[in-house]
Amino acid sequence: MLAVSQAFSPCRPCNNSECPVKTVVPRAIPRVHPALALIDFRCVPSVGAVQAALTTPFPVYVLHVKVGYEARAAHMRDVLAREALEADWVLDFDIPDLDSKHLAEWFQDGMATACATTSCAAKHLEAWRRLLKSQAAGALVLEDDMFLSADFRSALTAMLEEAESRHSLRGKPYVLSLENSGLRFVPKQEREEGRLLYPNTLIRCAGAYYVSKEAAAIFIAGAKTDRVGAPLDWFMNAFFPDRVQLYWCHPTIAEQGSHNGKFRSGIDHKKDGLLRKLSWNAQRWFKSKFRSR
Q1: pLDDT by residue (tens digit) across 162-213?
Q2: I need a labelling partner for 64 at 20 to 30 A (CA). Which of 23, 90, 119, 120 fits?
Q3: Residue 111 in contact with residue 230, Cβ under 8 Å?
C-alpha cells in the first residue's frame, strides 16, 4: 500500500537541507510574466528539479491574480519548485479584465458581473481551454493558495494509475478531487486498504483537482451553451455523475491556505490568523481519522 502523508508543511526557507531548491538568486527568475517579475523570488530549482519538471506528464495550471496577491505567488513558486512541477500561470481574467462582452458570452445571473467569484470561474474556464489546445490527456489545476502534501507528486501519480487500472477511466470524462476543503473526507467505513479513489457527486471546492481532457470539453461546452450561473465548483457539480465521473482521493493531498488560516480569502469572509489555524487543524485531525458519514 502506498503511504500517503497528510502533513501539510509551510514553505521551507532556502537554507533548509531538505529543500530540493539549491540556487539562491537575488532577483526574479527571468522571462516570467511582468506581474510576477515584481516578486523577489528567493530561489530556482536545482538541475535535477528542472529535469524532473520537464518530464511532468501533464500540464499544471496555477490560477493567480496579478496585483495584490504577491505573497501567494511567492508561496506557489516555492511549492512548485519543491515538487519539481513546471506550471502554466493563468493570469488572464482579473476583475478589471472582465468586459461586458465576455461576461455576456460565458456567464449569467449574478455571475455576469465583474467580481472576484466570476474572475475565479473565468480563470478555471481558461485553464480548461488551454488543456483542450494541448496534447495532454488531462491537467492539474491549482488555485494560488494551495499547500501540497510532502508526497504530492508520487501520490497523484499513483492515483492516475489507479484511475486507469481499477476504474478504467482512460479516455473518459473524470475529475479527481485532491483537497480537504470543507473538511470533507471519505467516510471511515468506506475506506479500503490500498485504495486511493472513491466515487462521489460533489466536488470539495475547486482549489486542487485533476481534470481529464474529456471532462474539460464537457465543462466548456456546458459553459458555452448554458453559461455559468453559479460559483465554479457548483457549476461543476451539475455534471456529476451523469456526464462526468468524480472521485475523491483519500488521504487528501492538498489544502487551501484560505481555509486553513494561512491566507485571507479573496472571495468570501474567511480570515487568516492563529485562531482559525488552531480550529482548522483540530477539526482536520478529528474528521480525517474518525468521520463515519
Answers
A1: 999 999 999 999 999 999 877 788 998 999 999 999 999 999 989 999 999 9
A2: 23
A3: yes
Q: Return the closest-CA partner of residue 143 out of 266, 33, 5.
A: 266
Phi, psi of 191 (to 5 degrees): -75, 140
Burial bucket for residue 34 (CB in 10 Å: 0-12, 13-18, 19+): exposed
- CA–CA dist 203, 159 (Å, integer): 16
Mean pLDDT of the chain: 80
Q: Cα–Cα distance between 41 and 78 in angstroms, integer? A: 9
Q: Among 42, 33, 40, 97, which residue's Cα sits nearest to residue 62? A: 33
Q: Does domain 31-290 have CATH number 3.90.550?
A: yes
Cis peptide before 241 (omega within 30 of 0): yes
User: 4 phi and psi, to 5 degrees?
Assistant: -110, 120
pLDDT at residue 277, as a whole number? 60
Q: pTM, whole model, 2 decimals?
A: 0.76
CA-CA distance, 25 to 193, in Å (whole number)?
44
Quote the pLDDT of residue 42: 32
Q: Tell me the H-state helices in the chain.
A: 47-54, 70-82, 100-106, 116-133, 152-165, 213-226, 232-237, 257-260, 274-290
